[in-house]
Design goal:
Layout: H1 3-19, H2 24-30, H3 37-43, H4 51-60, H5 65-68, H6 80-87, H7 92-110
Length: 111
């Protein structure tokens, strides 16, 4: 795997991880790695990644391998699941605002 490819994959993994509000340590543990160092090296493009690990990361990041390698041409808006996963990292005040917005939408739907 060339350096440019490793950089692109690493950048995409980092962007998706941050979008979901996950730390490197959380992601590493979810794919069965001992430390966050593994994820850090991949995100910096300093480590080759196996297809098995790429598939595992894609699953844990609720995305596709194609998206992580930069071949996913269709950009998708975050799903409700993505938003809820990211919400756990919000401040209490921001979570309350999100809940207020949800209730507003729910009440509009019932009108």
């Amino acid at each position: 795997m060339n350096n440019e490819t490793k950089q692109k994959i690493g950048t995409n993994i980092r962007a998706r991880r941050e979008q979901l509000g996950l730390s490197q340590e959380q992601l590493a543990q979810s794919v069965g790695k001992q430390t966050a160092t593994y994820i850090a090296f991949i995100e910096k493009g300093e480590r080759n990644i196996t297809m098995v690990d790429l598939m595992s990361l894609a699953k844990q990041l609720s995305t596709t391998v194609a998206s992580l390698i930069g071949e996913d041409k269709e950009k998708k808006d975050p799903s409700v699941v993505d938003v809820l996963r990211a919400a756990k990292e919000l401040s209490r005040s921001d979570r309350e605002k999100l809940e207020d917005f949800y209730n507003f939408i729910k009440n509009k739907k019932n009108d």
